[in-house]
Design a protein that fits this description.
Blueprint lengths: L2 H25 L26 H14 L7 H24 L14 H15 L3 H24 L8
Helix pairs in contact: 1-2, 1-3, 1-4, 1-5, 2-3, 3-4, 4-5
Length: 162
């Protein structure tokens, strides 16, 4: 098992997911242009929802580039991990909108699995991950995300706990 590599990737995923939340807290609506431009699909729901912004995606990738080297990963790997985490998050949002769920609503598993699975799969060839490494990473992220979300809620950084 590649525990160190999994931990390094998870650290970047946590940062990539946390940066948009912090940006919303401190910048409020400033530069918070919706990624979907308000596009409503034929099902009557937005493509992604109001909480997915250009600011969040850009800041997430920049944070991956800047902070991945602190965890022993290259900036290019950090950018890819962050971009994949955001792609997983967008996939989750797209699915939740199709299910009629509101922006920022909770869907256990759907909120955590894609945003951890995609970066772990993407980085697997570079870091030598096998199926057990990827599964471990997804499970640790799911459990950790629930704990971190509750902490951020208690600190008044997140609007809702999971």
């Amino acid at each position: 098992m590649h525990l160190l590599g999994v931990a390094q990737v998870l650290a970047v995923i946590v940062i990539a997911n946390g940066v948009p939340v912090l940006a919303r807290k401190f910048l409020r609506d400033r530069y918070g242009w919706p990624l979907d431009g308000g596009l409503v699909l034929s099902d009557g729901h937005r493509l992604f929802g109001r909480s997915k912004t250009v600011r969040g995606i850009v800041l997430s990738i920049v944070a991956g580039i800047v902070l991945a080297p602190l965890f022993g990963l290259g900036a290019d790997l950090g950018a890819g991990i962050a971009a994949c985490a955001m792609a997983g998050d967008l996939f989750s949002s797209f699915c939740k909108r199709r299910l009629g769920m509101e922006s920022s609503s909770q869907a256990l598993g759907l909120d955590q699995v894609p945003e951890s699975l995609l970066p772990l799969l993407w980085s697997a060839p570079v870091l030598g991950f096998g199926a057990a490494d990827i599964l471990l990473g997804v499970v640790v992220f799911l459990v950790g995300e629930l704990a971190i979300s509750r902490l951020l809620f208690r600190l008044h950084i997140r609007e809702r706990p999971y």
